[in-house]
Amino acid sequence: MPVPEHQQRQIADKQFHDATLIWNYHQMGHEQRPCSAAIGLGSHDLGVATAAADLYRAGLFPVVVFSGGNSPTTRARFPRGEAVHYREHALSLGVPDEAILVEPKAANTGQNITFSRELLTQAGVEVQSLLLISKPYMERRSYATCRKLWPEAEVVCASEPLELDDYIKSIGDEKLVVDMLVGDLQRVIEYPKLGFAVEQDVPGDVYDAYERLLGAGFDSRLIST
């Protein structure tokens, strides 16, 4: 008989519940609709390019910028750079080359937005609305960053439609995923104070879950504050 999912977990059920609260908070729940352009935000997660291909085939944008260079966490996985590997994956899924722009230098989310905006301007793309495609747990931070840096664009967020259990399976490291959820929530909280993003309301139950997970040692992806 198969072992129930909750008995396979390496973290306690209460910790998984807290992680799920944060996972759900990170996702904006935007209704997907056609936009002037899309940006696929570079990361370790090739699912961003998969989602971009699905959304392109659905007719939601005419052009996508894949943005991202390399970082210590992606250099081994994407040796030619995040954006280059994203482009290759999207091409393999049927996105035409003429619908893809590559921005290969960005090293953080702010640069993803700023450099992609410059590239779209150079390409003559007029942007009234923007589809931001990210990892599932990065929707809120990418939204807050874009609202700060590109306030005149209407922003719609998207990611692969995965539940937390499925995302953990795709990454293969349960603690690392929870660490990343906690780290991104810290950035949502702290980045507005640094001028990097607009402020987002954090519900009390989400903040309490964050505090409990921090206390339990899910802290490898924190920034210094």
From TrEMBL:
InterPro entries: Cell_Envelope_Assoc (IPR051599), DUF218 (IPR003848), Rossmann-like_a/b/a_fold (IPR014729). Pfam families: DUF218 (PF02698). It comes from the Bacteria. Residues 48-152 form the DUF218 domain. This is YdcF family protein.
